[in-house]
Specification:
single chain, about 400 residues, Aspartate Aminotransferase, domain 2, 7-stranded mixed sheet, 13 strands, binds pyridoxal-5'-phosphate
Length: about 400
Amino acid sequence: MSKLDWVDEELNKLRETGLYNQIRTLGSAQGAWLMVDGKRVLNFCSNNYLGLANHPRLVQAAETAMRKYGVGPGAVRSIAGTLDLHIEFDQRMAKFKGVEAAISLQSGFAANLAVIPALVGKEDAILSDALNHASIIDGSRLSGAKILRYEHCDVADLERVLRETRKEFRRCLVVTDGVFSMDGDVAPLDKIYDVTRNYEAILMVDDAHGEGVLGRGGRGIVDHFDLHGKVDVEVGTLSKAFGVMGGVVAGNARIVEWLHQRARPFLFSSAITVPDVAAGLAAIDLLEESTVLVDKLWDNARFFKREMQTLGFDTGASTTPITPVMLGEAPLAQAVSRKLFEAGVFGMALGFPTVPQGKARIRVMISAAHKQADLEYGLEAFARVGRELGVIR
Ligand SMILES: *Cc1c(COP(=O)(O)O)cnc(C)c1O
């Protein structure tokens, strides 16, 4: 017996129950097509909504900035890691989103760990949608506040929890994903706002899958519902539609100032890197110049979803470019994924515990980088594999 034998046992359990994750390796840049484990396949898996991860303007901006500033941040923001580029980025982001202020972090995950414990503590409560992202859950746990879950996107249940418990707590934070990543449904943020305003609750939305996707020119969920000035905190990521790596907290200026003083990932982890900030600025430029990419994303998403439904597939509750193809049991989803891959299409099977038991699916991520011919190629493969495995007729 060694003290680490338990690791082998746990890993074997994962293998036996089919939950061991075989991680695929890419040999190419992000884009509509990828080299995956040595095979050229159509990419239906990335969060690269606008095709910016490999966009020449972003690459150029990163190169130019690296010639001037180098690559590494060298320090945390609060000591010697704040470049004029960071200040420019934070201001440009705030302006793009139409909020008072913004602060950039190393990732969306870090942004949630930064903001939640800075807003609430032991005497407080967090009201959290049942399907919120793992980083919201971890940030909530770190805060020490009491976590109260409400039913997914259920405003009546949220109101019930507020009514029954609000008086017991000093402060109250209501937090929801904007777009839910597994189903592609959108939180009813307008109705959530209407409820929370009556209970003196801080309102926070994590717009990771909405930024660059929802709202005018990709300005996000707050713009989509025209809730400017009403949502206290928007968390965002630069790692999805923006095509780089980083996180953002945007919204009320007092909260952003407080985060500069108290957010632990800001104070104790080094600044977001030079190429990321510079390319992030180029992404804002592109989005401000034109809505072409966002429009293309939505055209592609609508076309693909409609054609999949015509073929007889169930695309669930999605109203966004995230397109779940509902298959039921995990082994079927895995078989579809495997056969798609053989047919040159990279589509990820998601099963329990990522999604509920019996709700396994292939999650297709549509991008502006897809050409019409790419989508048709993917539809043909889905039709063939779906018929072969008896999913459609
Ligand atoms: C992807 C995601 C994150 C994490 O963002 P990163 O920048 O990749 O760390 C946080 N919240 C939600 C809702 C997400 O979908």
